[in-house]
Write a structure and sequence with these properties.
3-stranded antiparallel beta sheet, 73% helix, mainly alpha, two-stranded parallel sheet, MFS transporter, single chain
Amino acid sequence: MASSLTKDSVHPGTPGSEKTFFGHPRGLATLFMTEMWERFSYYGMRALLPLYLVAPSGLNLGMGSATAIYSVYVSLVYLLALPGGWVADRFLGPRKTVAVSGLIIMLGHLCLALPAAATFFVGLGLVAIGSGLLKANISTMVGHLYKGPEDPRRDGGFTLFYIGINLGAFAAPLIIGTVGENVDWHFGFALAALGMALGLAQYLLGSRHLSEKSDVVPTPLSAQEKAATLRKGLIWLAVAAVFYAAVGFSGHFTLNWALIPLTLIGLIVPILVIGRILRDKDLDGAERSQVRAYVWFFVAAAIFWMIYDQGGSTLSLFAEGKADNSVLGWEFPVSWYQSVNPVMIMALAPVFAWLWLWLNRRGKEPSTIVKFSSGLVLIGASFFLFLAPLSISEGGHKAAAMWLVAVYFVQTVAELTLSPVGLSVTTKMAPRKYASQMMGVWFLAVTAGDSITALVSNPAVGGVDLDRTGFVAMEAALAALAGAAVWMYRRKVNSLMGDVH
């Protein structure tokens, strides 16, 4: 995509003479391209991941194991956003943290490109760590480009940035997925590494256009804190190394020795974090009440993401073996389904933004609770719709591709109803003390949802086939009931929210 940098005036030094990116600070172009290439690498690899895990030419795992690995990986990306924010706030600052994260992601994809199971899982870990570091900080740097919330260009800047995310997510399965499925899996992973390398290179070259605020470490660690943090980190690392060495040398190590602890961490950490905030004596009565209300939104969001993220695992693996992946006789790679959501997001997001404003002017905009409950009902409806292709496949036929496209369409509408509202309510209901940390708490809802999927699908724990009619119907009903429950108790939640609406 062209950078579209424009010159407002031929007279340097006069107001408005600086180069801009569609009228925005030039640093936005740097962050736009960085995020676009990072999302290109992330979503391209993610589109290939479940298919590679089950392929005879890949790791040749069962569907349950593949879904568990995929879900744990996605949950880790969002879980690691919390320590990613901490690294920037206490140690490196956002600009250096993003540079380091890009390098880690690139190295991770290079490990995935090597044809060995051991390096593959090392690569997954590195990409998860790097993505967590980057996710927590690059949006903060976009905000640094503007003169506070009152800058009229701020919302437009974030909209452009959001387009970069979806451009990368749209193109990745079409390019990386095609190469991975039709040429060689590891060439596809290597393309993801190349994408991140391009993003990192232009980030380093264009970083001079970023705000000086992005260099600041807001609350740097003292020398004593650094030493204590390093000591604790090395102790935990040594404990893990000794434990897994003992398990490995005894001949008992299997993949689940890593998967199950990570799954449990993804379930326990969100509970601990929210519990710690609720017990904080520095919060006043109104703030504590708002956090209790936020728990409703958090649980609802976890159920939502539990179903939504199966679009990349359960639906993709169903398409691999039980769908007719063709349009008018032209067959396309299974990974291309992962481009449906981002292109629909780009098409529908402006429509939803206009719709909420139109309803607001007439005093009819739905409340946050109604939007949330609608998102849950819709995500449940997407899995009720999924029952149709499941029934077709059980009859010995291959389901038409448009059934799956319809499922992804309903999920996209559900996402646009719930996700932006969730981000907004998180910032509104955050206690003053946790203003910057609450976005990480919102990401933990994704971690919790995917961890539930990993636990249920893992053959050593739940062992549930997630593409079976009974379980899909149960998940759909759970989401619909959760949406109805949120709506029924809306007055109670509203009273807890206080003056937040």
